[in-house]
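In response to the reviewer comment on reproducibility (Comment 2.3), we provide here a single inverse folding case reported in full, input and output, so that an independent group could reproduce the run without further information from us. The structure tokens appear first.
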């Protein structure tokens, strides 16, 4: 790899933070970055949709959150900025996490199609005012949007300064060489491993069937989802499904840092019309973007383990258990991570809860935290144990409203012979000395004195447990 291409790659990596992408106005994807698998398809769709309907001049910014225009869920705002005459920057930022179960996306909140926000150096105050006046618009929306725009403008200027400082010339020839080498790297990484084909079925609790036929040959990957059922509860957009497939493949083979038009070309995804991986407006996508993504990643990971038997890895609890608590006008959101699957060499990594302060939670909410620690694992045992999930046990001191969701794969799929299942996610409610199980996706009023326990899933174990011989 030449010096200029390495410098270009480093420049892209440093600039793109969080869920973001950089494209040319000719629709070449230079790089996508992010931890959310759906970003690898939706950010590209967002840029293409905005460019189709809006003419963005250098410095202009558009925004959207519509899942059918390249968004994910309505609480995540996607910004599209023309950072130069030739480059489009897409950046996704979370406003207020929100779990709201609805039959249509229109019922979930304020849906924003591709909308011009900043033109000729000026924010469109009229459009901002119209959005803020919507009954479902989050508090402090205008102030937050303005702060994000100011941050993006400053970052875009830093990009210009960096390019000038390095002296690199971003030419069409450089881009073409970079994309070609990215494709070559992806093909090489795949070709170094075994080829083959397999089929995996994942049945979700809601009744949907996910059927994946995976074929790997000559450094290319073909995924055919023929046989996947129509939607009952889950709806996942086409671009989100593609992004999840690419992220799973690129992570496995190790070319995730080169996510662009070049590496995208090694993956072919075929989906039957009408299946739940081809959501159509106005279906709600909240469950699909969480539970559906977890099922899809599970299917891909499992198929790869079948083909690459020397690199088997037990399944991880892919989606955290997401919990929202409401009391009067106060709301909090918890993300309880799941355990990771073990491999043939190491045990799985145990889970943690992101950004949770017991003191803050008890001060803001009428709750008492009885327990936050790793759950006692029943499943996930083996020569190498799976990472344990978490348990968060909360007593309501006043009536609360709770909503939660996680993966919906209690119907455990068939595993390779060396792997075992971990514990599934669980939600239980204690009342008057009795304990009952609640669905892993639901919402309920938690009455004063009731105790609700949220348990995230554990990772699967690998290999048979070693038997210890005791000599008397």
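Designed residues, in position order:
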């Amino acid at each position: 790899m030449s010096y200029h291409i390495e410098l270009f790659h480093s420049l892209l990596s440093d600039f793109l933070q969080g869920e973001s992408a950089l494209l040319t106005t000719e629709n070449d994807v230079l790089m996508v970055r992010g931890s959310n698998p759906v970003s690898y398809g939706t950010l590209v769709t967002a840029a293409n949709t905005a460019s189709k309907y809006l003419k963005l001049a250098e410095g202009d910014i558009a925004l959207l959150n519509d899942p059918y225009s390249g968004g994910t869920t309505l609480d995540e705002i996607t910004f599209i900025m023309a950072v130069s005459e030739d480059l489009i920057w897409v950046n996704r930022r979370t406003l207020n996490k929100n779990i709201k179960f609805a039959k249509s996306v229109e019922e979930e909140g304020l849906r924003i199609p591709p909308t011009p926000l900043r033109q000729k150096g000026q924010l469109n105050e009229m459009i901002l005012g119209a959005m803020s006046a919507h009954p479902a618009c989050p508090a402090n929306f205008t102030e937050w949007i303005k702060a994000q725009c100011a941050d993006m403008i400053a970052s875009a200027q830093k990009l210009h300064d960096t390019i000038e400082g390095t002296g690199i010339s971003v030419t069409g020839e450089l881009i073409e060489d970079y994309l070609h080498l990215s494709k070559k790297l992806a093909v090489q990484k795949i070709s170094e491993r075994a080829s083959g084909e397999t089929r995996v079925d994942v049945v979700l609790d809601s009744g949907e069937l996910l059927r994946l036929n995976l074929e790997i040959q000559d450094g290319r990957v073909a995924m055919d989802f023929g046989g996947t059922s129509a939607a009952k509860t889950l709806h996942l957009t086409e671009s989100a499904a593609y992004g999840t497939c690419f992220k799973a493949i690129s992570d496995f083979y190790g070319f995730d840092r080169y996510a662009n038009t070049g590496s995208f070309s090694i993956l072919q995804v075929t989906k039957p019309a009408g299946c739940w991986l081809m959501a159509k407006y106005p279906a709600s996508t909240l469950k699909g973007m969480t539970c559906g993504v977890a099922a899809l990643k599970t299917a891909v990971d499992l198929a790869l383990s079948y083909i690459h038997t020397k690199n088997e890895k037990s399944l991880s609890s892919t989606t955290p258990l997401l919990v929202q608590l409401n009391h009067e006008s106060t709301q909090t959101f918890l993300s309880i991570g799941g355990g990771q699957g073990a491999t043939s060499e190491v045990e799985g990594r145990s889970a943690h809860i992101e950004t949770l302060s017991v003191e803050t939670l008890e001060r803001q909410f009428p709750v008492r935290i009885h327990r936050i620690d790793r759950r006692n694992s029943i499943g996930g045992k083996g020569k190498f144990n799976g990472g344990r999930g978490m348990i968060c046990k909360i007593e309501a001191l006043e009536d609360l409203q709770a909503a939660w969701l996680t993966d919906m794969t209690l119907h455990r799929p068939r595993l390779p012979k060396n792997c075992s299942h971990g514990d599934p996610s669980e939600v239980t409610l204690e009342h008057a000395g009795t304990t009952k199980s609640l669905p892993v996706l639901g919402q309920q009023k938690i009455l004063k004195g009731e105790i609700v326990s949220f348990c995230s899933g554990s990772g699967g174990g690998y290999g048979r447990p070693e038997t210890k011989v005791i000599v008397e």
